[in-house]
Amino acid sequence: MGAATSVSSATAVLVEGATQQEITAAFATFSPEQRAKLLGALMPSAPESKYGGASRGDAKDTDDFKYFTYDACPAFTADHKSLMAKELAKVWDELKDKKTGKGYTLSNVIQTGVETPHLGVGCTAGDEEAWTVFAPLFYPVIKGWHGYDPETSTHPVDLNAENVVLSDENAALFSKYVVSTRIRAARNVSGYGLPAGATDDDREAVKVLLTKAFDAFEGELKGTFYPLEGMDKKTEDELQAEGFLFQKPSLRNLLTMAGAARNWPKSRGIFHNAAKTALCWVNEEDHCRIISMEKGGNVKSVFTRFCEISKTLSTVAESQGTKLMHSEKLGYLGTCPSNLGTGLRASVMIVLPKLNEHVDLLEKICDKFDLQPRGSAGEHSAAVGGKWDVSNKQRLGFSEVQLVQKMIDGIQKLIGFEEQLAAGKSADDLAKELA
């Protein structure tokens, strides 16, 4: 298919049973708007779902997406893996008729988990109030996912990068082993619907507010905002090559069946600074996804930049008569229960050739320091080139500084074990030190 391929002809390719390679090639020729139309054809616009839901004219419906209403608690199957599916029956009668002031219902909360069975969490918030109205469902899910009890706990906040300890000695050590460092988290603006429940007006207002924040960035943070709507192919290809272009809606992720991909790509976009060390995604899963990154292992530098971005967003929100969504119990609020609290993922890409030969030991070290290792060759397998992505496991119940410090301390320990293995010490002896 050439660049002039129409949406209808690409849809025909899908219907006629083309190979994945043919589908991918056809999809690659499309503009963001054309892709949205094609995906819209695959969205749940039919009047019924496979699990008892029916389209009844939700006020948030759009041409490319219809919300479902569930008159009874869905009959979950063995394919349904989510915590929502395990908890829903216990609270169905209590919550079935509730909705937020913006009209977000229990059916809206659960739709993504009902219609996308493989999801692990399986529920979403469509606005700030949903976290209170549907707390009897959200709280058990949060406890199951994070091991944190919102009923009895409060979430700490610390965005002072000076509280992070990274000695000159450790910084030099990190520079030897760490290829790159990245810290990201979500921020949402109070008063507007979250993507799963937002109106077009909500989305546009959030975009306008966030672009004001981007305009307020100073020094190294100054950069450019790129709207997805109307984006030319050259810019799209460049952002894609950099790894900056965020994920387009698919039927397997949380966004599509939650309604968060309605009217894609309207009012969505990407900001990055000139040095490409600060990145913000607008109106994807959350209002804003902050990403601070750079080559090498200067974690404190990356965290300092992250804090500056977060504080600027907060300051601009307050100057516009609002604030960032936050609660004492749940920390920073967003669309998915998995990204509450700090919502923070601090990670390094690190080369550990010796530990790569002893994956069990690497995983034990990471587990001891509440870290999550991800190799390129899949779970419990050695990584290609010994290159691992290692990040904090926790999001909720610890402050930003605590989680970044845990990551630093754990990486320091990983490097120490790597060097002991290189010096000839056995993996068995090192494993005993962890006991």
Main attributes?
Creatine Kinase, Chain A, domain 2; 435 residues; 40% helix; alpha+beta; globular; disordered N terminus
Question: Topology of this structure?
Answer:
Elements: H1 7-15, H2 20-28, H3 32-42, E1 53-54, E2 69-70, H4 83-95, H5 106-115, H6 130-133, H7 135-146, H8 168-177, E3 178-187, H9 200-216, E4 223-227, H10 233-242, H11 254-258, E5 269-273, E6 278-282, E7 288-295, H12 299-319, E8 326-327, E9 331-332, E10 345-351, H13 359-368, E11 371-375, E12 387-392, H14 400-422, H15 427-434
Antiparallel strand pairs: 1-2, 3-7, 3-10, 4-5, 5-6, 6-7, 8-9, 10-12, 11-12
Helix pairs in contact: 1-3, 4-7, 9-12, 13-14, 13-15
Notes on the structure:
By secondary structure, the protein is of the alpha+beta class. The protein has a domain at 161-434: Glutamine synthetase/guanido kinase, catalytic domain (Creatine Kinase, Chain A, domain 2). Helices cover 40% and strands 14% of the residues. It has an eight-stranded antiparallel sheet with strand order 4-5-6-7-3-10-12-11. Strands 1-2 form a two-stranded antiparallel sheet. The chain has a two-stranded antiparallel ribbon with strand order 8-9. α4 runs antiparallel to α7 and α9 crosses α12 (299-319). The termini are far apart.
What can be said about this structure in brief?
40% of the residues lie in helices and 14% in strands.
- Rounded to the nearest angstrom, the radius of gyration is 23 Å
- Would you count the extended β strands for me? 12
* Biggest sheet: strand arrangement: 4-5-6-7-3-10-12-11
User: What's the SSE pattern?
Assistant: HHHEEHHHHHEHEHHEEEHEEEHEEHH
Name of the level-1 CATH class of the domain at 161-434: Alpha Beta
Distance between the termini: 59 Å
Principal-axis shape = globular
Q: Which assembly state applies to the chains in this document?
A: single chain
The average pLDDT score comes to: 90
Largest sheet: 8 strands, antiparallel
Poorly predicted spans: 1-20
CATH architecture of the domain at 161-434: 2-Layer Sandwich
